[in-house]
Structures are given as C-alpha cells and as structure tokens.
C-alpha cells in the first residue's frame, strides 16, 4: 500500500471567546508519572460517505479548546517537576491518500503496513497527532496517536467521543474535569503496601524503539488476532465458574463495575443467593494466560504473572468522576507457578486474577499516592511501566469498556477499529469486536515459534 502525504501541518485550538493564557502549566500527578512515557496509536476505518477533511479539522480545533492539554507540550517547571505546558502550540494534522480501494489495501490485523496510516511515534513533540487517509473507494482511515503521560485510555476515549460531537455540531458534554491537584498525600504518610519493585524500580529501563518497521522485533514477533464469539465466551465463563463456591477459601468483600463474585457459601444473611460468575474479562484473561504459557513451553517450576490495569475512578473513596481527564490507573499482578496454572482447572487462574485485582482498592491507591509523593526523588526510582515483560510474563490492556466505537464524525460508527502495529511480545490487547454483538477481539504478539502451539489450544476449553 502506497500512502501519499498531501499535507502536514500544526493546527491549534479555536476558542469561541478570547483565548486563555498560554503561560500556565499543569503538574503531572503520581499516576501520570508512573505511566508509559510514549505515544500510542489506534486506527479507525469508515465507509463512505464521510465528511470532508475540513469538517473533521474544525471539530478537532473546537475540541482542543476544551481539552487544552493535548495542544500543549510536556516539560519541566522551575522546580524541575514534570508538567504539561498549556501553551496551545497545537497538534499534528496530516492529510494523505491511497490510490486503491481500502478492501484491497488495508490489513485486517496489525502489521507494519499500519505504520503508514498514522504519523511516526518516534521523537514526537506534539502530544496528539491525526492522519486522515482517503482511499479511492471513498473510505476514510483515521490514524490517531496520543502521549500516554497526558491521559489514560478512559480519558482519551472521552476526548475522542467529544471530537465526534464537535464535528456534528453537538454539545461536548460531559465536560472534562481537569483538576490534577486532587491527589494529595496524607500529612502522615502510610506506606501500607510494597510499591518499590511493583510500580517503581531502581533499574533504569532500556528505551523502547518505536520504529518497528523493519526492526528485529518485526522479524521475530507476529501479532495474532483472535476472535472470541459470544457463544465461546459464555461457555468459557461457565467453565471458569464451575467450582467457584468450592474453590474460594475466604470471602471477598468486593464489588465493582468489572467483577462481582458471590460469597463462598452462596449465602447472605441466611438467604441462599444465586452463584454469580466471574467477569468475562477475568475468564478470558485466565484462558489466554494459560494458552500463552502453554505455547511458550516454560518450566513447570517457573513463576509467571500478568500485569492488569485497574481503573481507580471507582476505587478511590470518595469516587473520582468518570470525566476526570488524566491517568488514574494502577496495576494488579496475579502470579502463579506454571505447574499450578496449567494443571489446575481454569477456575484456579480466574480466582488468582480476581483476588489480585480486588486488592488494588482505595487503601492501595492512597498508599501509592503517599509513596510516589515522598519516596521517588530520594530513592531515584523509575516506572516499571516502561520495562517490557519478561519471557514468562504478560501484560494485558483492556479496551472493553471504552467507547471507541462512538467516534462518529457524522457518518456513523467506524466499521473497523484496531491498535496500530506494536510487536512487543507479551503485551496483549482486548477490544470489543466491530460486530457489536458482545464478541471480543484479542491482539496477541507472539514469537513466531510459539504461534502454532498457541493456535492449537486457544479455542480449547
């Protein structure tokens, strides 16, 4: 696929009234600083008819007036603390074309070809980049990149939905909450949990090369897309919860938007309660953890773990509004010996995941705020999020609850949505299928010599 760049320029926010000051800055929070220090990219595809580029451009300028952080720049203030400068320097806006129909050109799974459908992620000053690529059939592909230190997936998806509303002339509600000063450490810090070696390490990470096209990684790693139907997911949940009551040895006083589990006796206040299954997310991660571990042919005495993002908006007390704009994620690290993971029933793996996630609660988040506020500078620590998983470990990013398919520029929802090409073995991504029926697509980077073994068991229950 040959992509022709028609134009590349910087566009800035467009305000209804007098523009605000461009000398302000926002300090990054402990959650921002602990996150991945780099750009991430996603790809959207739309069937014709689609609005003209000028409509999408003006909508972007409009939404940037509300989400000013994206039009700013990262830097440090006079004290040397990392900040976002609200200087309105703008975002990169690229227009491109392909002289072929999309069906004949665009891959349905992540491959190096996708790198031509969004601006480069390497050595980028802008915090957001957009590329509009028009195909000869009239289809439109939107490549979007954003810096992860500014916002997590939840906040970024809210921005994208607001962008679509701006293009359609709608009110961009709910407006984002910008106050990043709310995460205040306690006067008497309480380091209740171990954070060194978890979110932070004394080991300086090796810089990740974002130029994947033609790299050694591209030669060794293939990104395999697996589609899980609703029927398969239902059977998986049933299997993973078969021995739920017998398997859980202590009650978990835990309930969230993501996971609900009944008591081990199935009773509450003397009344029998129906057995409630683990979440689809937990069951699918447990299944993939087992499948990938089996494909890797690890020693049964090795320890393997999964890094799972946990959204703090509903975990902190008092709750943080869903429209908070920034990063508010920590991680759970379920662990198991390979022997136990593969030989025990899948309910064992699901239980390990559930219990690890449940521990990342209000107390844990507040302990992290205290630790990050008091300990980082004196101990010279680095975020573990910038370190690739070891050969025995996994990291899972879930986009299952993000409204990415609601990015509507006036032509309806995209018919395709996927991450760009990111061949880092061990980092898998879960996304709702574009079919919109509750099925799930998993994008799994694997070493090529593990691929066939994985394919042989990924649909086996």
TrEMBL record:
Sorted UniProt keywords: Acyltransferase, Transferase
Protein name: Uncharacterized protein
Family: Belongs to the plant acyltransferase family.
Oxidoreductase keyword on record: no
Species whose genome carries this gene: Eucalyptus grandis (Flooded gum)
InterPro entries: CAT-like_dom_sf, Plant_Fungal_Acyltransferase
Molecular-function GO term, any one: acyltransferase activity, transferring groups other than amino-acyl groups
């Amino acid at each position: 696929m040959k992509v022709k760049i028609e134009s590349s320029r910087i566009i800035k926010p467009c305000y209804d009234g007098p523009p605000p000051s461009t000398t302000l800055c926002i300090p990054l929070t402990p959650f921002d600083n602990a996150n991945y220090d780099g750009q991430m990219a996603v790809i959207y595809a739309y069937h014709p008819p689609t609005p003209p580029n000028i409509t999408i451009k003006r909508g972007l300028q409009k939404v940037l007036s509300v989400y000013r952080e994206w039009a700013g720049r990262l830097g440090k203030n006079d004290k040397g603390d990392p900040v976002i400068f609200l200087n309105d320097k703008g975002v990169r806006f690229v227009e491109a074309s392909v002289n072929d129909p999309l069906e004949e050109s665009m891959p349905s799974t992540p491959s190096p070809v996708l790198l031509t459908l969004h601006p480069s992620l390497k050595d980028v000053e802008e915090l957001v980049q957009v590329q509009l690529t028009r195909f000869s059939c009239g289809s439109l592909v939107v490549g979007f990149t954003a810096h992860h230190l500014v916002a997590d997936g939840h906040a970024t998806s809210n921005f994208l939905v607001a962008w679509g509303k701006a293009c359609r002339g709608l009110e961009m509600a709910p407006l984002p909450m910008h106050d990043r000063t709310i995460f205040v450490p306690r006067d008497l810090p309480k380091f209740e949990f171990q954070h060194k070696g978890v979110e932070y390490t004394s080991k300086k990470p090796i810089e990740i090369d974002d130029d994947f096209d033609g790299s050694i990684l591209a030669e060794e790693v293939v990104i395999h897309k697996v589609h899980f139907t609703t029927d398969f997911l239902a059977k998986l949940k049933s299997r993973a919860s078969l021995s739920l009551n017998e398997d859980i040895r202590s009650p978990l006083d835990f309930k969230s938007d993501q996971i609900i589990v009944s008591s081990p006796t199935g009773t509450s206040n003397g009344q029998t309660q129906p057995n409630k299954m683990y979440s689809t997310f937990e069951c699918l991660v447990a299944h993939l953890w087992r499948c990938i571990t089996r494909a890797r042919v690890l020693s049964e005495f090795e320890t393997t773990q999964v890094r799972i993002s946990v959204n703090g908006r509903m975990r902190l007390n008092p709750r943080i509004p869903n429209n908070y704009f920034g990063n508010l994620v920590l991680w759970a690290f379920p662990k198991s010996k390979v022997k136990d993971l593969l030989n025990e029933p899948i309910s064992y793996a699901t239980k390990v995941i559930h219990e690890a996630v449940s521990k990342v609660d209000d107390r844990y988040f507040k302990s992290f705020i205290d630790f990050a506020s008091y300990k980082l500078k004196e101990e010279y620590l680095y975020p573990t999020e910038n370190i690739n998983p070891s050969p025995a470990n996994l990291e899972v990013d879930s986009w299952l609850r993000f409204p990415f398919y609601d990015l509507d520029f006036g032509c309806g929802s995209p018919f395709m949505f996927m991450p760009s090409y990111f061949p880092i073995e061990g980092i898998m991504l879960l996304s709702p299928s574009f079919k919109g029926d509750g099925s799930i697509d998993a994008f799994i980077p694997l070493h090529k010599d593990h691929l066939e073994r994985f394919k042989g068991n990924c649909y086996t229950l």
